[in-house]
Amino acid sequence: MLARADGTEKRELAEGYKPVWSPDGRLLAHADAFHPFDLRVLDLDGGEDRRLVRELQHHEYIFGPDAGLLTFRRMSLRYDPWIWLVETSGEGKPQRLAKGIAPNFAPDGTVAYTSNDYFIFDEGRYRHGVYLIRPGEEEGRFLRPGYWPTWSPDGARIAFTVEQTVVLMNPDGSEPRELTAGLYPEWSPDGHLLTYFKPGDGYANYVYELDSGEERRLGVGYDPSWSPDGRWLTYCRDDHVYLTSVEDGREYLLDDKAAATPAWRPRND
Fold it and tell me: Is residue 177 in a domain?
């Protein structure tokens, strides 16, 4: 379903769920409504809704910066999670990229991800670590212990989580800086704010202003999504979709029907 920010002009695009937009707003990846572990891509210009991948095992996928590539996650025969690449044109076969989860593209195409191949000798066990890899490389490069890395819009910094704390670092892993207690950070489109969940506060969405260090609590809901102008945040709660103002925290009901995973269409200027 596609709708304006005020909930009007609704129209159905395709039968499916877990929508993810390409950076140019032309393509929409989604899970198939009737075959939930098939990954499809809808071309809004031509109207074609083509299947790219069967048997995902996990609904975790994201477009590359030029919309030509899409990453997805699939388990190996040994039940190890692997990140794969597939061309959104449907040409060619999917290619394995790295063993891990939570991939995130930088503007230059570098992929940050989480893997548990980081071994702590003092503890005698593996822990999650943040890695980088570029398509075509055979092995990822370890940066720091942590998980859920996400690139800033300009590719100059990476936000991630360590021991329930949101941390910033440079792309080479240097100058780590702890910001606040939090989980699963996501950048605002202008790179000045981060949204995240607070340990012990359920699905309450918090916003951290990087320039001032100010932290604000917004509405409660999962699957938060930033508006392209950074003024609004959408999320789900009790099978409803809500819209909240990042500036003053006012919350509005956007859709009162069963819905999940709202996603803003990027601007296509």
Answer: no
